[in-house]
Structures are given as C-alpha cells and as structure tokens.
Amino acid sequence: MKKIAILGAGESGVGTAILALQKGYSVFVSDFGTIKDNYKEALTNAGICWEENGHTEAEILDADVVVKSPGIPDKAPIIKKLVDKGVKIISEIEFAYHFNSELSIAITGSNGKTTTTMLTYKLLKDGGLDIGIAGNIGDSYAGQVASNPEKCYVLELSSFQLDGIVEFRPNIAVLTNLSPDHLDRYDYKYSNYIDSKFRITMNQTAEDYFIYDYDDEEIQQWLKTHTIKAKALPFSLYKKLDEGAYVEDKNIVVTMNKETIVLPIEDLGIEGLHNVKNAMAATTIAQLKRIRKDKIRESLSDFQGVEHRLEKVLKVDNVQYINDSKATNINATFFALESMKTPTVWIVGGVDKGNDYHELMPLVREKVKSIVCLGLDNTKIRDAYQNVVESFVEVQTMNDAVKVAQSLAESGDAVLLSPACASFDLFENYEDRGRQFKDEVHNL
C-alpha cells in the first residue's frame, strides 16, 4: 500500500486526505500548528491518523509521496529533509488532477484571478454546464474530486500551488497579469516568480488554450523568449486583435473561430478597467465552452463582484467607504486608486512584500488627500508619501484607522482601504482585515 503524508490540515490538506484514503493510500496528516475542530472531526470520522503542533519526522520521511500546503515554504526544515531523501513533494492540485477525468480551467495572475474565476464559474453555470469551483476558493479541489470526479472545475491557482505541479494540465489556462508579489518566497527575484506563474501552461498541448493579457509587458517579454504549445488567445484594452478579446467603441469584442460577440462595457455589473479585462478573459472562456451569447450578456450584467475587492460598504455623512482589503500588492492598489472618482482618504499598510511605492506616486498626487497608515512598520510608506499628502497618520488598530479616516474625510470624499500589503502583522488574513473594516464602518 502506498503511503502518503499530508503537511497542513486546512481545507486543502483534509480534502487531499479524504481523496487519498478513497484511492487506497495509507494516509498520515501532520500540521505544525493547531488544527481547527471541524477538520479534526472530519479526519477522525474518516479514520485518518493525524497530529498537530509538530511533525513526527520518521513518519513523514517514510512516505512515498508528500502533499504540502501551499503556505509551507521550501526552506522549512521538514521540506529540506524530504528533498534530501528524494521523496516526491506535490501540491493538492497535482494529486487531485490524476483522479479528475475532465480537464479543468485554471486561472492565475498577480491580480484579478478571484474575480475572473468567480465570473467564469457564473458564466458557465448560468449557461447550463455542470461546473465546480475550487483552488483558492470554496471547498478543496481534492475533496470535490472525491465525490465528483467527472466534473469540470474552474480553479483559482496561486504561484505556490503551481510550484507543486508536475503533470497537471488544464484545458484552458488564464494568466490575468503579472506584478511583483510574494518575492520573499522567490529569493527576491521577479523572474523566478514570473516563471512560477507560467507553469500553468507548461503541460498544455496544441489542443489546449492559453488566455493572457496582451497589454502586460512582462507577459509579452516572457513569451518572446519561451515557447508554449497551447493556442494563445490574448485580450487587450488598446489593440484590435485578429483572435481574442479587445475593446472597440466602448464595447468588448471577442473574436474566435470566425465567430464574434459584442458586449457593451456599460452593461457590466462591475466597474473599472481591470474588471473589463477580467470580463474579457471570462467571456473568452465562455465562448470556448459554447455558452450562448444572450446568456453571457445576462450573466455579465448581474455579476456583483467579489467581497473585499473594491466593495462599497456604506455611505456615512456623504462619505463612501470602500473595502479593497484583497489588494495585497502595489498593482492591485494601482487599479483601486485609478478607479477613484472623488478625493480619497487612503488606508494603507501591513506586511511589505518588497513593494516599490513610487509606482503609485502619480495616482497618490492626483487622487489622495490623506493617508492613514495601518501597520506595525510603516517606514517605507512614510518615506514615500509623508510629504505628498495633506495629512499622514499612523495607527495600529482598525478601529483607530476608520475613526481617523472619518475625521479626515469631508462630504463628497471616499475612504478607501487598499493596503498594498499582506495582513499578517495585525490580522489573521485579508478577509479578517476586510471584515473588521466593514464592522468599524457600520459602527460609525
């Protein structure tokens, strides 16, 4: 009997354990931290051995294959020992792929991947397809494959998940864009991170499709020096394309296999240029999957967007409060600031992942009147913007951030939480940060 060790007992680890057990593996689950009660219960009920608050190395090093949580870095001592011993280490995505008979749709990118994934799922589901959604969203891919192995899944994938693939091959792959992110995991080399993102297409064949942002210079540069086998379908805001998606006369035009669909941008349920791009990518997929044009139009118009991504929370004293907690890098915040139509009090800060704040300088000068800095170490942000805005205030709780922002905002202004940083200094994750923001706004 093949032995599998699973490192990390979150959603993805527990789903993998259940699928592995079903496929006849001897399963051992180990988490260096504590395991949530609901996951402990699921493992115990399935008769799966598990441990928490540390790793029993002998047990793990004895495995034939190890599935590790995307959050565990390659530098972790247990991973180094497994590598030295030559044990195969893969991600949940790679493991589950081999038991999923229908090729998936996989979406990655520095920004926009959640919106594109959810919008794609909606277009295909509304269009009548039996479709699942997994990866970074919802229930684990492996857990769903255990119950529905024949379904097509729309997968939102991070670079960390792609680092753990070997043979995973999606029928349709999307790369929404590239901007420096998670560089601390890639030896602070942007090129390593870019290579990681492009792993999404490495196993694709001439029968598959690769959808990408034609306007992204880094993507274009990579494609000039590397060959991909999949059929390339770009999307662009600025260039008319023979095949792919582009903008013309305030319409999205998608042309493929001599068929064209035209969608007025004003009919989109979500605002901003970045969302036009997300809609182009999702519509291209819907076209490939033969969804009817009227269904695509209808679904695009009633899609309301994603929680924590430019989410309008409330107007208080004619000030609009906007939750963009999902903006954990410069590029995401760039799009948020670009979309602001009124003077803005900007709440920014957190764990810096190697940001260059000067990239935002023109937008800060044009749109931002005051900055509220929310983080344990705000040095880089202070150095960049302190002398550029009317007011610059540093705080360390969300309660203070919202109260200070309220005092700085006047009627007709907006308060934007768009941190451009990870959340782990003061919050559990970006969702926790976003929900705390919304709670404090509702308490004003």
From TrEMBL:
Q: Name one GO biological process term.
A: cell division
Indicate where this protein resides in the cell: Cytoplasm
Which E.C. number(s) belong to this protein?
A: 6.3.2.9
Superkingdom classification of source: Bacteria
Keywords, in A-Z order: ATP-binding, Cell cycle, Cell division, Cell shape, Cell wall biogenesis/degradation, Cytoplasm, Ligase, Nucleotide-binding, Peptidoglycan synthesis
Quick one: which residues bind ATP?
109-115
By its UniProt entry, which InterPro entries does this protein fall under? Mur-like_cat_sf, Mur_ligase_C, Mur_ligase_C_dom_sf, Mur_ligase_cen, MurD
What SUPFAM superfamilies does UniProt report for this protein, alphabetically?
Answer: MurCD N-terminal domain, MurD-like peptide ligases, catalytic domain, MurD-like peptide ligases, peptide-binding domain
Boundaries of every Mur ligase C-terminal domain copy: 308-421
Ranges of residues in domain Mur ligase central: 107-285
Q: Where is the signal peptide?
A: none
Gene Ontology molecular functions: ATP binding; UDP-N-acetylmuramoylalanine-D-glutamate ligase activity
Pfam entry (one)? MurD_N
Q: List the Gene3D superfamilies.
A: Mur ligase, C-terminal domain, Mur-like, catalytic domain, NAD(P)-binding Rossmann-like Domain
- Pathway where it operates: Cell wall biogenesis; peptidoglycan biosynthesis
Main EC class the enzyme belongs to: ligase
Q: What catalytic reaction does the record list?
A: UDP-N-acetyl-alpha-D-muramoyl-L-alanine + D-glutamate + ATP = UDP-N-acetyl-alpha-D-muramoyl-L-alanyl-D-glutamate + ADP + phosphate + H(+)
Q: Which GO terms describe its cellular component?
A: cytoplasm
Which family is this protein grouped under?
Belongs to the MurCDEF family.
What this chain does, per the entry, is described as: Cell wall formation. Catalyzes the addition of glutamate to the nucleotide precursor UDP-N-acetylmuramoyl-L-alanine (UMA).
Q: What is the recorded name of this protein? A: UDP-N-acetylmuramoylalanine--D-glutamate ligase
Q: Which source organism does the UniProt entry give?
A: Myroides albus
